[in-house]
Amino acid sequence: GTGTNAQIPGYRVAGKTGTARKPPYEHPPYKYVTSFVGFAPADEPRLAAIVVLDEPEVHATGGQAAAPTFARIMQYALTVDRVPATG
Predict the structure, then answer these.
(1) How far apart are the first and last CA of the chain?
(2) pTM score of the predicted model
(3) What is the C-alpha to C-alpha distance for residues 27 and 2, in angstroms, rounded to an integer?
(4) pLDDT higher than 90, residue 3
(5) Considering 28, 29, 38, 55, which has the largest number of Cβ atoms within 10 A of its Cβ?
(6) Is the distance from CB of 5 to CB of 61 less than 8 angstroms?
(7) Dist CA 47 CA 12 (whole Å)
(8) 2 pLDDT band (50/70/90 cuts)?
């Protein structure tokens, strides 16, 4: 799926990507807002976060731009909050 870049080693993550094109819609260059909202661990959620990127410079989809950012933030938060790995 499009959220595979949100994976965190040792944890099951659940979430949803989002991609929206900004106006003007008629002609390039096209500009986007991308997002990923998710929580972890998926089976017994302890933490949730949303990442929204306005006009990311690289990659114009939620799965490519926002999901990896979510993974880095959530991995840090899980570590700081001492949430045990779920496998």
Answers:
(1) 20
(2) 0.91
(3) 26
(4) no
(5) 38
(6) no
(7) 12
(8) confident
Unique residue bearing structure tokens 């990442």? 51
pLDDT at 57: 87
At 85, the amino acid letter reads A
Rounded CA-CA distance 19/55 in Å is: 10
Residue type, position 10, single letter: G
Rounded CA-CA distance 24/40 in Å is: 36
In sign, the C-alpha dihedral spanning 7, 11, 14, 20 is negative
Give the whole-angstrom CA distance, residue 50 versus residue 6.
12
Judge whether 70 and 25 are in contact, CB under 8 Å.
no
- For 22-77, the pLDDT digits (tens) are 999 898 889 999 999 999 999 999 999 999 999 998 878 999 999 999 999 999 99
Two tokens, residue 8: 């965190």
Q: How far apart are CA 74 and CA 71, in angstroms?
A: 5
